[in-house]
Amino acid sequence: AHLVFARWAVDLAPAFMINMAYDITLANSLVPAERRVRASLEVARAARCMFEGQEVDIAEKGKGGTEENVLACYRLKTGALYAAAAEAGAIVCGAADEDAAAVSECGLHLGLAAQFHDDIADVVAGVHNAGKEAGRDRGKLTAVDLFGIEGTRKRASEFEEAALSRLRSFGPTADILRTLVCHANWTTQ
Fold it and tell me: If residue 188 lies in a helix (H) or strand (E), which one and from where to where?
């Protein structure tokens, strides 16, 4: 997206996608209304978290920050988005509450892994691998600043393992989610 569209369009993409999620979820007449509303409320919660996380991210720019603050920000932004997408999908597919919660936890950990990989990409990958120029995160505290490249890779791998652990009870029915988790790393090795 960074290569094709203007920065303002890329920056608005998350808000656009959230609104598309409402539209698609609420318009699906194959799903009972109660489940459509529950899934939409989950998406709304994620949208609030994403905006709060963006505020934290901007406020922390140029400040020292801590590991706890960075992880809280990542949970609010990428983690909340992935968790809500996973849980909303489970809800509209008819999952029991316990199963939807497990899928949500998987999504949260996948989102954290993806954000850690994005931090690595900002340092090492560049346009060819990540679709954006390296160095866009300069001036703000990232996982790479806290853990270094190898430490960030290790932490991302731990989040991926945590995501996979949430899927163990589902057997082969969760293979598509397992594939997503196993291919979350787009950064150069």
Answer: none
Query: Averaged over 172-186, what is the pLDDT?
Result: 87
Q: State the amino acid at position 121 in one-letter form.
A: A
Q: Which long-range contacts (CB under 8 A, 24 or more apart) does 47-55 make?
A: 47/15, 47/18, 49/75, 49/76, 49/77, 49/80, 49/81, 50/14, 50/18, 50/76, 50/77, 50/80, 50/81, 52/76, 53/77, 53/80
Q: For residue range 108-133, what is the model confidence (pLDDT) as tens digits?
A: 999 999 999 989 988 887 655 655 56
Residue 85 has pLDDT above 60, yes or no: yes
Report the half-sphere exposure of 62 (CA within 13 A, side-chain side). Answer: 2
- Exposed (0-12), middle (13-18) or buried (19+): which is 76, by Cβ within 10 Å? buried
Mean pLDDT over the full length of the chain: 86
Q: Is the dihedral of CA 134, 137, 139, 141 positive or negative?
A: negative
Q: Which residues lie closer than 8 Å to 42 by C-beta, 6 or more apart?
A: 84, 87, 88, 91, 104
